[in-house]
Amino acid sequence: MSEKTLDDLFLDTLKDIYYAEKQILKALPKMARASQSEDGKAAFLKHKEQTEGQIERLQQVFELLGKPARGKTCEAIQGIIAEAEEIIDEFKGSVALDAGLIASAQAVEHYEIARYGTLKSWAGQLSLKDIVPLLDANLQEELETDQLLTQLGEASANPKGAKKSA
Ligand SMILES: [Fe+2]
Ligand SMILES: [Fe+2]
User: Fold this and answer.
1) Of 6, 27, 61, 139, which sits 20 to 30 A from 46 (CA to CA)?
2) What Pfam families does this protein's entry cite (predicted)?
């Protein structure tokens, strides 16, 4: 049997989300440019700023572990971003574009929420006490972003309903 432990798996998954965040950082300005609604643009740009902070927190986590901050190719996020780019191409100029962008962005958020939820839980199990709050800060931002996207999605699918609830 291999000698690998949960510590190894934790580091491996940390590298996965570090890579993913860097890809997301590159994708968000493209999504902001593609968005037809100003609210959508603002949401993507705000999350780009948050993502910069999230990458810094991950660098702190690597530092606390005494490991170099290094990503590991994450094919899952590459696939989710490739789908977003496809939607931008295929729905350009259509009334459904913004709904498509929001749906793509939510797929990204859900991937991140899954990763941060797992990493936070493992950090607790591994008694990495200084690391738990850093991962939790990223997790909370992803959860808030997901909720914001849900609201924007409902607004773009049903503008009248959105006015009522705004
Ligand atoms: Fe993120
Ligand atoms: Fe995110």
Assistant:
1) 61
2) DUF892
Number of domains in the chain: 1
Q: Which residues are found with C-beta within 5 Å of the ion, ligand 1? A: 21, 51, 54, 112
Number of CB atoms found within 10 A of residue 160's CB: 7
User: Does residue 148 form part of some domain?
Assistant: yes
CATH number of the domain enclosing 81? 1.20.1260.10
Q: pTM for the full model?
A: 0.92
**Domain extent for 148:** 6-159
The 10s digit of each residue's pLDDT in 122-164 is 999 999 999 999 999 999 999 999 999 999 999 876 554 444 4
Q: How far is the CA of 145 from the centre of ligand 2 (A)?
A: 7
149 class by beta-carbon count within 10 Å (0-12 exposed, 13-18 middle, 19+ buried): buried
Closest of 18, 31, 6, 163 to residue 100, by C-alpha: 31
